[in-house]
Amino acid sequence: MPERLAEMLLDLWTPLIILWITLPPCIYMAPMNQSQVLMSGSPLELNRLSEEQRILNRSKRGWVWNQMFVLEEFSGPEPILVGRLHTDLDPGSKKIKYILSGDGAGTIFQINDITGDIHAIKRLDREEKAEYTLTAQAVDWETNKPLEPPSEFIIKVQDINDNAPEFLNGPYHATVPEMSILGTSVTNVTATDADDPVYGNSAKLVYSILEGQPYFSIEPETAIIKTALPNMDREAKEEYLVVIQAKDMGGHSGGLSGTTTLTVTLTDVNDNPPKFAQSLYHFSVPEDVVLGTAIGRVKANDQDIGENAQSSYDIIDGDGTALFEITSDAQAQDGIIRLRKPLDFETKKSYTLKVEAANVHIDPRFSGRGPFKDTTTVKIVVEDADEPPVFSSPTYLLEVHENAALNSVIGQVTARDPDITSSPIRFSIDRHTDLERQFNINADDGKITLATPLDRELSVWHNITIIATEIRNHSQISRVPVAIKVLDVNDNAPEFASEYEAFLCENGKPGQVIQTVSAMDKDDPKNGHYFLYSLLPEMVNNPNFTIKKNEDNSLSILAKHNGFNRQKQEVYLLPIIISDSGNPPLSSTSTLTIRVCGCSSDGVVQSCNVEAYVLPIGLSMGALIAILACIILLLVIVVLFVTLRRHKNEPLIIKDDEDVRENIIRYDDEGGGEEDTEAFDIATLQNPDGINGFLPPLLSLVLMVMHRTS
Ligand SMILES: *[C@@H]1O[C@H](CO)[C@@H](O)[C@H](O)[C@H]1NC(C)=O
Ligand SMILES: *[C@@H]1O[C@H](CO)[C@@H](O)[C@H](O)[C@H]1NC(C)=O
């Protein structure tokens, strides 16, 4: 107590007013020990407070001269004395009166104006308002004149431990990996205490575990929760409930406390290997099962969870490693055995596989515990299935010469029933593939024979399908494609590749090539065609023409002399023998027609017609005049005819371009020479239908022209 007074006097020193803090009498303080804590405090607490005041005073010296303390939550029978104002001013004969104003003056704090005693007349709560700022003044009792300037001071509400610690964020959840070492930090929790943290121990918290030992511990000051046992096993117990207590007053008895719960979940680590439920699995599968079909599943159990339980499955040994495969199903965490290659009951009836499951995510900390894998044995029994016949080949290619004799055997297919109870097989031709019934097959031995003659030049390929049927079970059917190729035989003679017509110029020179011809042969010899050309034996010494074979298998015909004259001989016929290179060779005779023509000096054919050549010279002047006269006469008749038709209001029947074109062509074709008297038969003109049908070409043309111009 003397220390406190000394401290205060240092600070309270003001020239005008000295307020004497009268500590509340001890009789008000019950219980006694609590008042001691509050009023005198520990030396440390007091020093700290003084330090704070000194800092404040440095900036506001002269005003903050004091503070009073009043205990919160005090509820005695009398108002509690907070302190006393006193001035050392010599009052002389005057009586001094103390006046109080500011926070709570008169309502919370009451002053005895004579003695200067300040009482708290209400119960105070520090957590509600921790300090009050008031102003004190000494005045003349009579005149109310201030004897000195007003002075401000603070009444601090002193804390008592009236608030328990609280966990605001509880209840808590935390995780920690299983198998953690001792002292692994799990989480930390925090409680708050509303009491004054800087005064006394009312807010000084100490944490402890009420429930959850011996698994977890808590650091009393920091509230860090740690594992208290090493190697806790999730597979044994996964969840722990921890009850944590925070107690104020530094944990001493009499302090207030609050609790919360923390649920700790152990997370999984891979500390368990996979283990097959069975050391031997049996599966059976029909031999005709489709490739890729799942045959069976094997599963290695793993006490871990999630990816720590994941295993990859492998076939590591056995006599079926080539035929089977295993895939890992991550979802179901098992292995699926599938067929990779076809099975054959008749070849092998059972297989044994050694299957391994190995953890995918190994934790190196536990790899020393042994291999994180397991093996099992899988026995697969192949079941017999009734299978259709099997041909000796997936396809057949047969070749036959086109001149093969009817009923001759051109090939054979074979098939067998792969089943143990091998059934005999019958063969037939799928008639949809042999509509012409070109072939027959022997139902028992599969020999294919020729039913109708072949012609390679008609069809090279006969692609048919042969059906094999088991006699004991007609539903067991197989089909095989058989391609029959017809091979060439030299059964066609060569001939001219086209109908040639040769022209020979009257003014041509000896040795001139008149025409080049080539030959064709429907056959298709292996080494291609080679043709031989010759003149008929009796023509070998033909005085007029000769032949010359060209390198490209064609033939040139040459004139032997000049001076051919179409007046003398208009057309020559030259028979040529063409032979092929077959064995035996075939030959034929083709005749080339050579026409003698008049040509220009550079060898362009001008006219080959004997009459056309004669006509212009033979036509007299009189004949030409006669023709002209005829035309004029015709025109007159036509004009008359058309006029007549118009009077009758009958439309012309020629309507469209189609008819016009037809008529022009007819005119060109017939040409109506001077002897074509029928073309001028006027009788037809009198028939109205004549215009549409029988009108002579020339007249039609004239009509058309008129129709167009009108
Ligand atoms: C027949 O089969 C052969 C060989 O497979 C093939 O080359 C040919 O094009 C086929 N012919 C027809 C008409 O399908
Ligand atoms: C050769 O031509 C002459 C006339 O030009 C004819 O009389 C004769 O018969 C021809 N000879 C042959 C073999 O055609």
Automatic annotation (TrEMBL):
Main location group: membrane
Protein localization: Cell membrane
The entry's keywords: Calcium, Cell adhesion, Cell membrane, Glycoprotein, Membrane, Metal-binding, Repeat, Signal, Transmembrane, Transmembrane helix
Database matches in SUPFAM superfamilies: Cadherin-like (SSF49313)
InterPro entries: Cadherin (IPR039808), Cadherin-like_dom (IPR002126), Cadherin-like_sf (IPR015919), Cadherin_CS (IPR020894)
Keyword Magnesium: no
Gene3D superfamilies (alphabetical): Cadherins
Gene Ontology terms for molecular function: beta-catenin binding; cadherin binding; calcium ion binding
All copies of domain Cadherin, residue ranges: 87-167, 168-276, 277-391, 392-496, 496-618
Keyword Signal: yes
GO biological process: adherens junction organization; calcium-dependent cell-cell adhesion via plasma membrane cell adhesion molecules; cell migration; cell morphogenesis; cell-cell adhesion mediated by cadherin; cell-cell junction assembly; homophilic cell adhesion via plasma membrane adhesion molecules
Listed GO CC annotations: adherens junction; axon terminus; catenin complex; synaptic cleft
Name by which UniProt lists this protein: Cadherin 8
Species this chain originates from: Suricata suricatta (Meerkat)
Gene: CDH8
